[in-house]
Fold:
Amino acid sequence: MESLDRLRDAILNGDADTARTLTEQALAAGVDPLTLVNQYMIPAMAETGRRFECNEFFVPELLIAARAMKAALSLVRPLLAASGVPPVARVVLGTVRGDLHDIGKNLVGAMLEGNGFEVIDLGVNVPPERFVETAREKGAKIVAMSALLTTTMPAMRTTIELLQASGLRPAVKVLVGGAPVTPRFASEIGADGYSDNAVGAVAEARRVLAA
Amino acid sequence: MGVHPALAALLQHSPVLTDGAWGTELQKRGLPPGQPPESWNLTHPDQVRAVARAYVEAGSEIILTNTFGANRIRLADAGLAEEVGLLNRRGVELSREAAGSRAAVFASIGPTGKLLMAGEVTAEDVRAAFEEQATALAEAGADALVIETMSDLQEAQLALAAAKATGLPVVVCMVFDSGRERDRTLMGDPPELVARTLEAAGADVLGANCGQGIEGFLPICRRLRAASSLPLWIKPNAGLPQLMDGRPRYTTTPESFAAHAPALRAAGADFLGGCCGTDPEFIRALRRVLDRA
Structure:
């Protein structure tokens, strides 16, 4: 379907208006919402990820593609919900206690949403208790934490310990990232996944859910 | 375009030794995580002055100021937006008191922490915030302004325009840490584009800081050198922190850091110092290596 290939291109090129219009047209023409998501929209985001990995795309291109995806998805999501198709998973996201940096976290949030996850963004300077309470209340499958300071990285460990003590582990998976965070640190504190970029974070989110 | 006259005297020998980290040094002295370091210009002036003095004593010919995050947008997160003028003025004064006539005081201007293209702030907000900060730093008597740790060329240009309006020499350095080769800014710009853009926009010095360890800076320094005739400013991190006794520590030693200095000098670095995780011992080590070589 030619117009649906254009939908994929619109998302890939970050053209939110066109993506929205084409989605409306497709739904009006009776295209199945799930087909629309799985065959056109998600492949578009997968392609943005691939281009990011090979240095054809950088953060600006990712951001506008995620924005276009979100615009298209907002039209489809209610229909999916009505027919009993849930979001991929609910993710509780935040920058850890003592840390006020939010650019990296916001990029991860945008990419997760663009890939069909429901993101509950708790903002910056989030205490461990808040991560745990929100994960419990909202039935989140993933807690994703960001830190940009060496001095705030230990708060990731504290949060994981609290999740453990609250009985939410290992069902609730933990992802960590941020400039000073290394794979070794992630595994030492018992996180399930790590990425140093927003595209990798989506792949890690999918991987830990499948594990 | 010639070298800014105020820099020419400093650049009679090269590289000129700058300073090391401030944020991590203040944390060693008890600054709690999450608290803006600039707040200590008012509450702990002795500690701030002590960091500055330690760099002067270690041989820094240029020291920066504890004003990196003292812009209205960033300070608003901590409820300090109305203290912009005071925090910046005290920052320059404390460094000047420590420097005396032994070192020049280049005042630090860091990013707002918001992404322009994500619509979190407007270009006008950012421009006004940098103008307010640059004006305060210039009025307090800074010798030059250093726009540092920038990830977004558009934001760097807004800061540069504001800084240039003061008439002081302006250094602009960005973080190159993204992409497969870790040679791009967060927004994907390579050193060549950054150099051309900032030189055209009137920067007096350009460079790279923060992000990665010193090994990664050599190719970036070479590429900036090839793309621009401006003096170059290089301030790498002390590598990536590693866990020791359960806490993250920077593990690059001053000696291993300084061992890269001759190569950076050969690659065209005119100003050399360190960023996150470096301390006065790193500056001493740089001094030893550069004097020997």
Q: What stands out?
A: Chain A touches chain B at residues 53-55, 57-61, 63-64, 97-103, 106, 110, 124-125, 149-154, 157, 179-180, 182, 184-185, 188, 197 (CB under 8 Å).
